[in-house]
Every structure is written in C-alpha cells, then in structure tokens.
Amino acid sequence: MPNAPYPMTDTQYPITKKWFRIGLLGIFILSLALRFWGLERFNTLVFDEVYFAKFGNNYLTHTPFFNAHPPLSQYMIGIGIWIGSHIPFWHDTVNGLTGSLRSPWTYRWFNALTGSFIPVVVAAIAYQLSYRRTFAILAGLFTACDGIFLVESRYALSNIYIVIFGLLGHWFLLLALDNQNRRRSFWLVFAGIGFGASVGTKWNGLWFLSGAYFIWIAAWLIHLIHSFSNSKFFFRSSLLEQEAGGKRQELGVSTYSPPSPLSPLSQTPLQNLTQLNIFQMLFYLGIIPAFIYSIIWIPHLQLDKTYGFIAVHQQILKFHLHLGGNSPNVHPYCAAWYKWPLMTRPMAYYYQTAESITEPLPVMGPPLPAGAGQVVYDVHAMGNPFLWWFGVAAMLFLIGMLVSQAAIPWVKEKRFSVPATLSVDTWIALYLVINYAANLLPWVKVTRCVFIYHYMCAVVFVFLAIAWFVDRCLCSYYQQLRALGVTITFIILAAFIFWMPIYLGLPLSTEGYKLRMWFNSWI
What we know:
By secondary structure, this protein is mainly α. The protein is 58% helix and 3% strand. The protein has helices at 17-36, 49-61, 72-85, 104-130, 133-144, 147-153, 159-177, 181-199, 206-229, 238-250, 278-296, 298-303, 309-321, 385-413, 424-440, 456-474, 479-504, 510-516, and strands spanning 347-354, 375-381, 507-509. A three-stranded antiparallel sheet has the order 1-2-3. It is globular and about 70 Å long.
C-alpha cells in the first residue's frame, strides 16, 4: 500500500490468539444457529430441492436417474438423509415428495452443517493470506452475514458444496506454500482433492482451480519481469535507480521497502508461489483433481448404467446447451453475469401467503387468491445488498491499487518495473482480483439461462475484499479511516438483520415485504 499509515507489527493488533479463536468459534456458532433455526419450517420441496433432494434419496432407494450435474452434492444430501433418518427426533413433520417418507430436516440438515463452515474457511484463507487476525475475523463475519449463502445452506441444494470444496482447495494450497518438503506435498494433495471435489459438484467449480493456476502464473511473470529489470541491457544503473527513488520521495510518490523477515505480518505464503514448478502444479493440481473427479462418478455410474463415463458427459453438455437463451422468456429469474455484482435480479425460492400468522404454514396446495393474503412467507436467494455493493467498491479499489502501482513507474520514469519484493497487500490484491475474475469472467460467454446463485463462487472474494478494506481502515492511525471502517461494518450488520426475514422465510406483513423489496427487479 502506498505509504499507508498502518501498523506493521503483531503487537499493535488488538486481537490476541485467545480472542481470535473465540471470535472464530462465535462466527461458527452464529452461522450454525441461523442455518438450523426453523430448518423444517416449510414441509415441502423448496426450489431445486425438487431435483437434489429427490436425487439424494434415489441413491438410498437404488433408483436410476439422469443428473445434469456431477453427483457429489447429491451423495452428500443422500448421506444426510440416511443419517437423519436414524436420528430419533426432528420427525414431527414428514412428506413423501422425495420418493420416500422423509422429514424436511433429514434432507436439509447436512447442507446446513456444511454451510456453517464456509465463513470459518473464508476466515482461515484471510488469515493465511496475511497473518492478520482482524482481517480474518472480518472476512468470516461478513461471510456469515450474507443472505444467499444462508438461504442456499438451509435447503437441499448443491451450490454450497462447490464453494466450500473450492475454498478448501485454496486454503490447503496456501498451507502448502507455508510449508516445505513432505508437509508441502501433504497439503498439495489435499488441495488437489478439494479442487477435484468442487468440480465434482458442478463443472463451474473448475474456476476455483483455474484461479490457483492464474495466481501461480502471475507470480512467475512477476519473477521473470523482475529478473529482466536487473539486466543492464534493459534498465538503468543502480545509481540512477537510487536517484529516481529519491525524486519519487520528494514528489510524495510512494516507494516500497522490503519488509523485515522478522515480522510475520511482512510475509504471505503467496510469496512462495514460484517455489512450485510446472511438474508439481500438473501433478498436484492437475492429475489429482482429475482422478478425484473421475472416482466421484463411480457410484452414480454403478446405479445408472444407461450411459458410460464419456456418454454421460456428452448428455450433460447437451442438456445445458439446450436450456435456451438468457432472457426472462426462458425463465423469469434469468440474470446475465453483469447483473450479479450489483444484485439487480435476485430470485424467490419460495413465496406463499396466508390470511393470518396463526394459520398453518402454506406449504401445500394452491396459493390464496390475489389480495386475500395478509401474511407473506418469502425465501429470497439474495445477498446482503450493502455487503455486495461495498464489496464491489472494495474490489474496484484493489484493481485501481494494482493499476496505479504499475502505472506510476511508467509515468515517472517511462519504464515498467517490478520491486524485488511485493508488499503483502499487493499480493492480497493480486490474489483476490485474479480469483474474482477467474470465477466471474467465464460466464461472459455462457448463453444459457443463468441465475444469481452462479455468482456465489466469485462473490466470496468480494467478501474478502471488503474485509481487507475495513481491516486497513480499522488499523489506520487516522480517526476518519477508523470511523469509516466501523461505519461500513455497522451498515453490513444492520442490513443483514433488516433482510433476515426473507432469508429465513419468516412471516411478514405485506407492508414489511414491500419495505424490503427496494426495486421492482427484486420481486
């Protein structure tokens, strides 16, 4: 960061190791409570539970079926149904919509548990990127305060599995970079398993793996550019370099001094990316993910022998290519990729009305006539608006920071240069921007109908971006910046509480529902 007034020693950070662990535990408990509270509220199949809950149950009843996605998430749901069916409680309400008599709790609880870990994994990635506890706590807290992750975790859907396995792949990769020799190989194996499992949930899990490759390529490019910058054939002598640095300081333009190796805050595992060679990348993050992806298919192909391994992939591709264009004529909630960051088109997973709050929940049968319902039950797959909007601004700030760091030497000295050692914040910016782009930009060329939940793989890096920005504000010596960080945090928390009824499907008056639908495109 350009001459940023931030503390650079661990003693200046207010969160001790003890309180850091307590904070992570608190975030997990909050996530767990929100996901399990009223989990059986709607005794029906909500949104794509009509597919995934049924598919999970089909594995238990040995019923062959065609699945338009890789099968890992349905295995997980099926395991949850099997375990839940053997637990002697939470069976007050049951239905036969999955093909067997099941309580909603049995096909939802495993997703709720899995989704509760996502904020903790995001916090772990933030800590591993920087060793800054404040950054990690903020990243975990903001992720726990998002709506679409809460909604997706409370129902038998598949997207949380793409995200958690992809994030675990990144966390294990960072742990590998933080170790050497056998311990590095150990974590690289687990990184490959995580990435393979993410792709084994849905194909777009591949973008998590591509993000790992892109940041590795970026690290090598930086290394090569710096190597060339030291060549006498291309750049000035060291004396001229020192004079130019002095002029930059006189002009008030920042220069970067390599951090002290004695301080853990001056290090990041990303600095070790160039210690991985092409053969390690291809084996650990190529062959192992491909192997894991392949064996994930074995139980499904044993159940449904209609198609072999190659043929089933051809059928899946054919299915997605024939879903139709990305317009409301195909599906009312179709939303192109450029609508996701500002959340202009979220979607309702469940909507029913009742005449009063004392009536049984309207989960079966036709809806009431228009105007008759006084109580609204709505489950909206919608992010925390201010978390997403602030996050996009933080991501743009990071992009601007990277561009400025490359442009300043060019403008001042008419040359492109890279410092010997990038700052931790520059590495974090590269990591977040590259992974965000890797998970968003592939959707630009997708012509089928897509939805806002496809943004979940990218938006986690937005959460990390706003957490980084707030952390830098809170750790500033300037009171105005600290106040800005506190204000952003408060607004995000308040927004989460305000929109929580439509994440949890709590009863709302018609006025209360309209109060939360700020734009017509949200309905």
